[in-house]
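Table 4 source record.
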Amino acid sequence: MALGVALLAVPTGASLAYESARDEAVERMLLDRIDEADRIVAGLKGQPFGGTTERRYKKALGIYRGLAEDHAGSKAADRLPVSLGAYYKAVAAPYAAGRYCDAVAPLRHLRTVADTFPAFRKDRLDSLGPLGALASWPDDRLATSLYECGSAALGKADANDPLRELLRTFPESDQAAKVGPALRAAIDTRSAALKGSDPCTGVDELRALGRTAEALPGGRVDTDELRDATDRAVERGVYACGVDEFKDSAFTEAAETLTDFARQYPGSAKRDRAEDIAVAAEIAAERPAAGRRLPPAHPSSGGGGTVEFVVANLAPGALEVLYTGPTTGTVKLKDCTSCGIYATKSRGDAACRAGVAKYPRTTLRLPAGDYHFLYKRATVRNRADGAKLSTSYRYTDCSFITRGTAGLGPT
């Protein structure tokens, strides 16, 4: 009987040893698994987030998730707070390095982890200690990255997306509160730069700031006030840009810039001045001598008196004459429906001398001095010319067309 009892005890001990060995083997397997995930994370730290790197990060995260879901009481699961903390720091390495634009995408990813990880359930966060704190760990860092990335790009188109995301995702954050002042400071800085040597660049940046303000949601930022400030600065800047282009002998660009200014800002006090400079610039594009200096802000005869200057159209098609000198302006004459093309220039000159009463015409009274002219007709190329107008003469300027060329200029 004693022997029988002893024999019966042997299988029970063997079963316990087997269970212990099996549990140990499972623990070793689970520890190997978390070691594998940790090695993946350590090897990816510092690499750009995305593509293969992102897929490998998610592979490691899948291992961590499996341990939390299926082996919550294991030794490997006990290591999850440390391993996940290292995971978060590795993914967010661009933030720690101050590369805020690069940090946005990985921090966005970290904010999704809490939604897919059972250990981060909101009703368990208080009991999770360090692990639970990871759920909100990316928020402030992402808000900072969005602000720093967007504010660094103010004046460029790519400032819009980060700042818009910041105001929509973290509207009550300290970072969101800084967006309005940062935009205002950027507008003021570019406005001051309009008085410098490169106002055209300042205009482009101000327009980009306006688009940024336009794209931002309301609430923490007074977008209407910012847009108004930007619009006022752009108006000043466009005029300054056109003047600067003229001074740099970029006459075609200056004419276009200032013509657009006059069209876009009809109520501006600088509208008439802009039109005069645009006229002089258009003439100077064909006759550079007209661009040696800005046209005078006010007509001046220099004490030389006034000249009577008749402009007549002796050709088919409407005519526009631009002039600059002591004064600047334009005159338009209707189509001469009865006119034809002259065989030679001398015949056109003879027709002019015979009298222009029957042709479309107008009389200008101009201060005496040196003038530059540009003659524009849709059917022939533009032609520029110049003349010194004296009070000793009465001038008739006939525009006509000859075969193969345009006979345009004072006669």
